[in-house]
Amino acid sequence: MSVVDQAERRVELLKQAVDLAERLHANQTEHQHLLRQRNANCRELKAAGASIKELQEAFGVSRSRVQQILSSSSD
């Protein structure tokens, strides 16, 4: 591989790295937003009379996680 080929490849890989970093950040931001929505929804459901078991099944989390969500004031 020539020096020029190596330089071009390095530029291509750096562009890919920047793209990946941006996508990871966007996904992390969306993930945090979705967790806040889930937690708020969980608290609303509980206030509306849903049982811990129903919340576990609806959100696919453990009983202890439901209890953590419910005990937190907001996320």
In a few lines, what is going on in this structure?
With 75 residues, the chain is mainly alpha-helical. Helices cover 83% and strands 0% of the residues.
Tell me about this structure.
- The chain has helices spanning 3-47, 52-59, 63-71.
- The N and C termini lie far apart (52 Å).
- The protein is mainly alpha-helical and 75 residues long.
- The protein has one domain (3-71).
- The model has no long low-confidence stretch (mean pLDDT 95).
Question: What is the number of E strands?
Answer: 0
Name the overall outline: rod-shaped
- Main beta-sheet strand count, sense and barrel state: none
N to C succession of SSEs: HHH
Mean pLDDT: 95
Distance between the termini: 52 Å
> Helical percent range?
over 70%
**Total number of distinct structural domains:** 1
Strand content: under 5%
Radius of gyration, taken over Cα atoms and rounded to an integer in Å: 22 Å
Task: Decide which structural class fits the backbone.
Answer: mainly alpha
Put simply, the count of helices is: 3
Stretches where pLDDT is under 50 for at least 5 consecutive residues are none
SSE layout and pairing:
Elements: H1 3-47, H2 52-59, H3 63-71
Helix pairs in contact: 2-3
